[in-house]
Design goal:
The chain is α/β, with parallel strands linked by helices. It has helices spanning 8-15, 31-34, 37-44, 81-94, 112-119, 136-141, 158-169, 179-183, 210-213, 217-235, 237-248; strands spanning 18-24, 48-54, 67-68, 78-79, 99-109, 123-128, 145-148, 202-203, 206-207. It binds adenine.
Length: 249
Amino acid sequence: MERMPLPQSLISAFLWPVRIDILTVLPELFSSWFGESILERAQSKGLVEIKVHDLRQWSPDKHRKVDDYPFGGGAGMVMQVEPIHRAIEQLRAERDYDEVIYLSPDGLLLDQPLANNLSTKGNLILLCGHYKGVDERVREHLITMEVSIGNYVLTGGELAAAVLCDAVVRLVPGVIGDETSALSDSFQDGLVAPPDYTRPADYQGWKVPDVLLSGHQANIDAWRHQQALERTRQRRPGMIEAGEEGEGG
Ligand code: ADE
């Protein structure tokens, strides 16, 4: 009898942690973010390993310089290929990586399906650009995927790398206490999330919808689905159209 293959996310969670290596010229930026919150707990539970590396340690320059003026002139500095190449080579000699991701405003837009996909991978390298960005040869020869967190330009890729880590790590099985909650997020089923309420049921006349207090689970589920559909139509109509196109083949 043929065996069903186990999903990569299960294998990663139970046999080895998801490993993310971040290459940056500003490693301090990550310490408070990764030292607190769910990302910290995920690491202390051994589900995820996030290592932040200072790219300057791979600089061949005695002043640990990692950037230079652009050939052909123009404003701003460009990150050099050599320190980045040396960093990636060293990491690759230690383990295999599924993707080497460059955070860039013109990369693939990060959305829930991309986060889901990345959460099923074992090891990732995230390269944060700075100044004008990286020497194009880095993109041509070393990078396997480019990711953007939106159509706007940040001063560097660090915030984008932190956003990507957060979106990916919370999907790793076991990271969020309530296993169902990551799956019921906005976007997971192609719809935004329905509204939530908590006590008190009546706050100065602002009332919680009766159906949520009814105890009738089928009605509650139907109401939530209806709300999610309605909100998606109002706020993200493109998601409904994309879903219909997908269904039609
Ligand atoms: N670096 C600068 N801007 C960025 C963006 N919008 N997404 C990812 N990386 C970036």
